[in-house]
């Protein structure tokens, strides 16, 4: 007798859509000679000192569990990092949890906050995981659309208009994936007024905080009255080129950390011990590690923005991360058609904007975390593709 699995599966889990990015990766990886502007990760290998420290940790036999919240030594380094670079003070003893990537930190935040039907405002275009994580935690993701005309910046008025008696939190991600948009202190300050007026919590995804190119980074947590109502999420993946290490952290008022730690303790136990030693090294050598990569990304950003605009694909200059989000509206193609035809015709992989929410339609995401030579070749191919459309 065959098993009808459908009747066993959770309705919530069934409704989750797989990431739209995957489809293009699978197609691209089956082809030869593809230049990928599709991936959302640094093209750098994790710096040697971090790897060396981790090897020494393994050699030293550090293979046991750590405290659930992570090694106190790492949490102390994280606290110093947040204080020195973002002017926010957290107690390493009860306000910081080391997680398995920023991904797990996001999951903890939503699970700790949400009851069935609670609404979370999500500024779109947005990182693909947010709405699924909110749904899995029983919440309702409510999109707030932005577009190129407003630099993909959400406004305080827009937030206020979307608030209902079910709204519990707003997810902010600055610099943003996929648009690269950075919200500066004044913009965050306007947003924070609405957040305070309506008594919301901010889940602040700051995974690209190290990669801001024109202005000094401001965390919304550091603004007046926001510390008590913000869950700060960050990690090592982007700024430190450590995606495969799966290390991140969450910092929050201790009443919230306490609840997230309960969930973390039962679902994950702790992040890997020897890798936490590597993360300590990363933070201790932060300046040298981050500066060099950041300068390289900045050069590439300037190059790709100028090239795309020259080709006729209008593209705003993003303040951070390593993505540009040019408009492809003039081609008359949908973003899926554009990405598919570009891949098949010219072997350049980009991500169609609609996978980041409805307001992403009409755009594609190009990651510039690839060598300048590859970028130059990709721009040649994209130019040829646009010309072929007539
Ligand atoms: N937030 C954003 C905005 C991201 O782009 C990513 C990775 N693409 C993550 C979180 C997840 O990061 P991590 O590798 O630390 O889980």
From TrEMBL:
GO terms for biological process: amino acid metabolic process. One of its GO terms (molecular function) is transaminase activity. Its cofactor is pyridoxal 5'-phosphate. The keyword Cell membrane does not apply. Residues 33-382 form the Aminotransferase class I/classII large domain. It is an enzyme of class 2 (transferase). Keywords: Aminotransferase, Pyridoxal phosphate, Transferase. Its EC number is 2.6.1.-. Pfam families: Aminotran_1_2. NCBIfam families: PRK07682.1. Belongs to the class-I pyridoxal-phosphate-dependent aminotransferase family. This is Aminotransferase. The lineage of its organism: Bacteria, Bacillati, Bacillota, Bacilli, Bacillales.
């Amino acid at each position: 007798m065959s098993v009808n699995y459908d009747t066993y599966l959770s309705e919530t889990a069934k409704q989750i859509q797989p990431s739209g990015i995957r489809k293009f990766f699978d197609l691209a990886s089956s082809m030869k000679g593809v230049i990928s502007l599709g991936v959302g990760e640094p093209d750098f290998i994790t710096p040697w000192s971090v790897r060396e420290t981790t090897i020494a940790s393994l050699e030293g036999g550090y293979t046991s569990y750590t405290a659930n919240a992570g090694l106190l030594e790492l949490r102390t380094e994280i606290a110093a990092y947040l204080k020195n670079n973002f002017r926010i003070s957290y107690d390493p003893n009860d306000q910081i949890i080391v997680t398995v990537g920023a991904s797990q930190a996001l999951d903890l935040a939503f699970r700790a906050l949400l009851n069935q039907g609670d609404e979370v405002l999500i500024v779109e275009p947005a990182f693909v995981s947010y709405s699924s994580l909110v749904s899995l935690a029983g919440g309702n993701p409510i999109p707030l659309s932005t577009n190129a005309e407003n630099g993909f910046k959400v406004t305080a008025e827009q937030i206020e208009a979307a608030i209902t008696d079910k709204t519990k939190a707003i997810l902010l991600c600055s610099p943003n994936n996929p648009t690269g948009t950075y919200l500066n202190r004044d913009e965050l300050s306007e947003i924070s007024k609405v957040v305070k007026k309506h008594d919301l919590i901010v889940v602040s995804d700051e995974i690209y905080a190290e990669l801001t190119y024109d202005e000094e980074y401001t965390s919304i947590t550091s603004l007046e009255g926001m510390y008590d109502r913000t869950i700060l999420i960050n990690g090592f993946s982007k700024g430190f080129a450590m995606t495969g290490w799966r290390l991140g952290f969450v910092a929050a008022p201790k009443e919230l950390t306490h609840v997230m730690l309960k969930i973390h303790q039962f679902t994950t136990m702790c992040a890997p011990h020897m890798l936490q030693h590597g993360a300590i090294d990363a933070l201790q050598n932060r300046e040298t590690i981050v500066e060099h990569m950041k300068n390289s990304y900045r050069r590439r950003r300037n190059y790709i923005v100028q090239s795309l605009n020259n080709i006729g694909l209008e593209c705003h200059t993003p303040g951070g991360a390593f993505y540009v989000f040019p408009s492809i509206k003039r081609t008359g193609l949908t973003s899926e058609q554009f990405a598919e035809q570009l891949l098949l015709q010219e072997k350049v992989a980009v991500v169609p904007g609609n996978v980041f929410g409805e307001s992403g339609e009409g755009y594609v995401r190009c990651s510039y975390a690839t060598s300048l030579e590859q970028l130059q070749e990709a721009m040649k191919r994209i130019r040829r593709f646009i010309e072929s459309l007539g």
